[in-house]
Specification:
Strand content: 15-25%
Structural class: alpha+beta
Number of helices: 1
Largest sheet: 3 strands, antiparallel
Distance between the termini: 34 Å
Shape: elongated
Number of strands: 3
Length: 94
Amino acid sequence: MPRSRSFLPGPVLLLLVTFLSPAVGQGTELRAGTARADITPPLGSQLYGYGARGQAVSTAVHDPLYAKALVLSDGATSIAIVNLDLGSFGKPYA
């Protein structure tokens, strides 16, 4: 089965539009923006998961990791939805 390349599943996008539509008054513009950044760790980084790997490090990239964001704004209120291709991240990034 091929992997989905969709940023937001259809039902999530439909809910956002449904709930945000009443908030946008007549003559108000709803603006949207997206961004994607490659956050793949450099080669030689310690592998995540599988504790049995011990101190194993990466030697190649099978699939790059991304941070993706969707921002919606009506000029007065903004909302951001962020997706990170990560298993976890440490305190310095929280």
